[in-house]
Amino acid sequence: MTSDQPSATLTAPPAAAVAAATVAAPPPDVADRRSLAPDLARGMLLLFIALANVWGYLWSTGEAGPGGRPAGGSDVDHLVDALTAFFVDDRSRPMFAILYGFGLATMASRLAARGEDRRGARRVLARRGAWLVVLGLVHSALLFGGDILAAYGVTGLVALAFLHRSRVTLWIWFAAGTLLSTAAGVVVLVFFEEGFGGDGAPTTSYVASVGERLVSSGASIGLAAVLLFFVPQVVLGILLSRAGWLTRPWEHRRRLGQVVVVALAVNVVGNLPWALVVGHVWEPSAAVGGVLEIVHIASGVVMGLGYVCLFGWLAAVWHDRRDLPVVRAVTAVGERSLTSYLLQSVMFAPLLSAWGLGLGGRIGTATAAALAVGVWLVTVAVAVTLDHHGRRGPFEVLLRRLTYRRRRDRVTR
């Protein structure tokens, strides 16, 4: 993957890495099995995504409340809104980006192990990113304007420039990208948002809604490409891959736990005030609310890393329990994350959209959250069924065939 030897931790010196490696021995069959931590994280990420996306399908004719939620909800709705804002909102996207960067670096490493040079590896990964953009645009046009595949596909193309850089260079770009994306985010919030939200009235025409969704997706792609919104998190994922925190979590359990504790503390300090605003416990001025939302988004990057490390820590604890039904079910979703993500839209859009059954105009956010959990459980059932029959997800198969056009390019994901 790179001429540098992978570091044992993100920041620890080699001596600390050696000491960490003695904390726990690797499972005896680790070389023969997929890494548990990434699949476990992706499987739970799909639940977070469902909870984060479902309220975007809700609509009303009035002005949206804080966080874009429909105004006028019940006390239970407000409680669910606050909890979702605290644990999920703007945390799932950074988590997805970190795991995406980890996946890019892992695929590049495996391609190199099979004899592919750096140029060839980047060519393969560029094809994958381009096809993710195409798939994301199709997904957006047909079902969901908040699609993330296209934006991350573009981000992945940009991130190819960092794939084989030194660790020091990656940290420099992480810092620079974080500053740029944060400043850009402030500009977007200040100049392109009116108060806390806007008119949520939707179109009842499916044909007209296609255009609206494509405009939304195009804006996301442009922001991702020009303002590097997700590049810092993707770079962080590349660093995680090199450090082995997710592939050898038993060696890094203490550091993984430390990151989780710090991330939770940052989330409380940086995100609790905004969660109280979204839950209608506190009604600050528009200016204060804008600042709180910016801090909420910034702290989401830290919490996204915290979630990734949490599932890495759990993988270190459960490395000999991966055959437990619950663990197998979640990892089955993680192994088929693309299929599970698209399947969510297949269920959400016709049920909630104004051009479909229109339930999004008649239910509150608490009911929507319950629906999101139900939708995720359906994807779990589908993934477990596919896993039982030894089948990949259909969209994983499709993307694999589009990416690895030549037999010698093929590599286990």
Automatic annotation (TrEMBL):
Keyword tRNA-binding among UniProt keywords: no
Pfam family, one: DUF418
Entries under InterPro entries matching the protein: Bact_Transport_Assoc, DUF418
Entry keywords, A to Z: Membrane, Transmembrane, Transmembrane helix
Magnesium listed as a keyword: no
Start and end residues of each DUF418 domain: 241-405
TM regions (residue ranges): 43-60, 95-113, 125-142, 148-163, 170-192, 219-240, 260-282, 294-318, 338-357, 363-386
Protein name (database record): DUF418 domain-containing protein
Species in which this protein is naturally found: Cellulomonas algicola
